[in-house]
Amino acid sequence: MGSRLPSQWKRLSSGPMVDYKVFRVQKHRVADPRDGTEHERVLIDSPDWVNIIPLTPDRQVVMIRQFRFGIDANTLEIPGGMVEPGEEPMIAAARELEEETGYQPGRVVHLGTIHPNPAIQNNRCHSFLAFDCRKVHGGLQDTGEDISVELFDSSEIPALILSGQVTHSLVLNAFFFQHLRPPDHA
């Protein structure tokens, strides 16, 4: 027996877009394609995001620690941020790496792209791997950022994840993409 694809929901109306600088929120009234019942849905309109796993020549992973308001705690992450209008994701990833850590990459490769939460968001997150990263300055953090930089041997990453020290889902996704890469492409 073949499977059918779900039908697209018809948008009946849209409310005003509320701008919060890093994303915009809009309510939609939609019709269920099966029976026409109306439902309210919320869309978070956000620019694409990037993150980057930076490796130094001696295979140290450059990580950052910063306070996250959603969980009211510090998190251990890899550098990342928003793609600026007209900016290529790979350029954005290298820019975020340098701004947050002061490291510049020698070579950057694309690991993969995901939809962070397609139920309510329309953006993507592009993950990259950077080789031969070298510290060139102390970092150029944005106003409102307070980031500490920490180096970990790449062999320590699985233990950091399994022990719950790395919990950011987009960071875990980047490391998963890296894990899936064939060894000859490392």
Would you write up a description of this structure?
It is a single chain. This protein is α+β, with helices and mostly antiparallel strands. It folds into two domains: 10-45, no CATH class; 49-181, Alpha-Beta Complex (Nucleoside Triphosphate Pyrophosphohydrolase), CATH 3.90.79.10. The protein contains three helices and 13 strands; from the N terminus they run ββββββββαβββββαα. It has helices at residues 89-101, 157-162, 169-180, and strands spanning 10-14, 18-19, 24-31, 38-45, 49-54, 60-68, 73-77, 80-82, 103-104, 107-114, 125-131, 134-135, 147-153. Strands 1, 2, 3 and 4 form a four-stranded antiparallel beta sheet that branches. The model has no long low-confidence stretch (mean pLDDT 94).
Question: What order do the helices and strands come in, and which of them pair?
Answer:
Elements (H helix, E strand, L loop, with lengths): L9 E5 L3 E2 L4 E8 L6 E8 L3 E6 L5 E9 L4 E5 L2 E3 L6 H13 L1 E2 L2 E8 L10 E7 L2 E2 L11 E7 L3 H6 L6 H12 L6
Parallel strand pairs: 5-11
Antiparallel strand pairs: 1-3, 2-3, 3-4, 5-8, 6-7, 6-13, 9-12, 10-11
Keywords:
3 helices; about 190 residues; Nucleoside Triphosphate Pyrophosphohydrolase; 4-stranded antiparallel beta sheet; 2 domains; 13 strands; alpha+beta
Average per-residue pLDDT, rounded, comes to 94
Count helical runs: 3
CATH class of the largest domain: Alpha Beta
The proportion of residues in beta strands is: 35-45%
Strand segment count: 13
Helix content: 10-25%
The helix/strand class is: alpha+beta
Shape: globular
CATH architecture of the largest domain: Alpha-Beta Complex
Number of domains: 2
CATH topology of the largest domain: Nucleoside Triphosphate Pyrophosphohydrolase
Largest sheet: 4 strands, antiparallel
CATH homologous superfamily descriptor of the largest domain: Nucleoside Triphosphate Pyrophosphohydrolase
Q: Provide the low-confidence segments as ranges.
A: none
Question: What radius of gyration results from the CA coordinates?
Answer: 19 Å
Please write the string of helix (H) and strand (E) elements: EEEEEEEEHEEEEEHH
